[in-house]
Design brief:
Elements lengths: L1 E6 L3 H14 L6 E6 L6 H11 L3 E5 L6 H10 L5 E4 L11 H9 L4 E5 L12 H18 L11 E4 H7 L10 H8 L6 E5 L14 H15 L6 H25 L5 H24 L7 H33 L2 H23 L13
Parallel strand pairs: 1-2, 1-4, 2-3, 5-7
Antiparallel strand pairs: 4-6, 5-6
Helix pairs in contact: 1-2, 5-8, 8-9, 9-10, 10-11, 11-12
Length: 363
């Protein structure tokens, strides 16, 4: 069995975590694959030290790539074991139930979920606010997967590796809810069982729960409910675009107080809005591919050029639609939609898909 643990800034938990796994999995053939997103606290180095003593432990260090779901998938694809377990390294998941989960896999289950909501499970010390938020997210998830599991938001599960391998191209791999993504992508005949556990309180490190994590959950639901027609990254790109429009209009009105020509005011407002959109998209929409330093400056220039071409596409479609339908509002919406789709598609390829140069290796 391969235990996959995505990590970011979990150095202080690593020794206790690996010791706990070793104790829980006595008599079971296992390995631990830590997939670390280049943590600044030195998690990668700590795992290497542990691996030098315990050959069961190895690490995948991801440079320039971020995200829990994609980290889990990468770890699973690096495994050759027939069974994989996914568990956080922060000690909040109960590793002692792993043998029970493996027994259910051996009994014919394809996927076993560590649940906080079945009899015998608990959310531990969660407050009322977090409980209600989790209950709401669970109900929303059931719109997508029905009652396949009582805890679709769980980050603790075990599966046959082939289940992931056979459906890896169907996975969104965006955000943090890889279990929900996997269940939504798996065939209806997938046999899912549960093992209850009590969610522990974190003792080291900081929680990764942020508003962005919640937003990515909503985007995942949208993508799956629309069968991939609306990718989650595009939703966020469009939201940033609406905010950029508000910035554009604000700057345009502000410029009006100085009484320049409309062309000058419009040019300044457009430039400010483009910079605003780029910064937000770089910070949030493409945060797993975030540009820094000189690459960010180059990316901004390319983004402005892309948006300039997108504006031409916008005007062309809007003009055609106005002539066809004679309605300014319809024409404006179709033009804006065309511009957004163009900007998103080309920006994804030319701005945030630029590869870093590989360092030269001396002979």
């Amino acid at each position: 069995m391969s235990v996959i643990s995505p990590s970011y800034n979990e150095r202080d938990n690593m020794r206790a975590f690996t010791d706990a796994l070793a104790s829980a999995l006595k008599g079971i053939e296992w390995e631990l694959i830590v997939v670390d997103d280049d943590s600044p606290d030195g998690t990668y180095e700590e795992v290497l030290k542990i691996g030098a003593i315990n050959p069961r432990v190895r690490c995948i260090r991801r440079v320039g790539r971020k995200g829990l779901s994609s980290a889990v998938v990468e770890g699973i694809l690096a495994s050759s074991a027939p069974v994989v377990a996914v568990i956080d390294a922060d000690m909040q998941h109960d590793e002692t139930v792993l043998p029970q989960m493996l027994a259910k896999i051996d009994g014919g289950a394809d996927l076993v979920v560590g649940t906080r909501y079945a009899a015998g499970g608990s959310t531990g010390t969660w407050g009322e606010g977090r409980l209600r938020m989790s209950e709401l997210a669970t109900k929303m998830s059931q719109l997508l997967i029905g009652n396949a599991t009582s805890d679709p938001m769980s980050g603790f599960f075990m599966a046959r590796r082939d289940l992931v391998n056979n459906h890896v191209y169907d996975l969104s791999q965006q955000g943090y809810k890889i279990l929900l993504d996997l269940i939504a992508s798996a065939p209806p005949a997938t046999r899912i069982e549960e093992v209850p556990y009590t969610f522990r309180e974190r003792t080291e490190g900081e929680s990764k729960l942020t508003l962005m994590v919640l937003a990515e959950f909503l985007f995942l639901l949208i993508e799956k409910l629309t069968k991939g027609l609306i990718p989650p990254r595009f939703v966020l790109f469009a939201i940033v675009g609406f905010l950029g429009l508000a910035v554009h209009l604000s700057v345009l009105n502000l410029m009006g107080t100085f009484q320049p020509t409309f062309i000058i005011a419009q040019t300044v407002a457009t430039f400010v809005a483009m910079v605003f959109n780029f910064v937000l998209n770089n910070q949030f929409t493409f945060r797993d591919k975030r540009l820094t330093g000189m690459r960010m400056i180059v990316g901004l220039v390319v983004f402005i050029l892309v948006c300039s071409v997108g504006a031409i596409a916008n005007l062309s479609v809007a003009n055609f639609a106005q002539q066809e339908f004679g309605n300014w509002n319809v024409a404006g919406v179709l033009g804006a939609l065309m511009g957004s789709v163009f900007n998103f598609g080309v920006s994804s390829t030319l701005v945030w898909n630029r590869r870093k140069k590989k360092p030269r290796v001396s002979a």
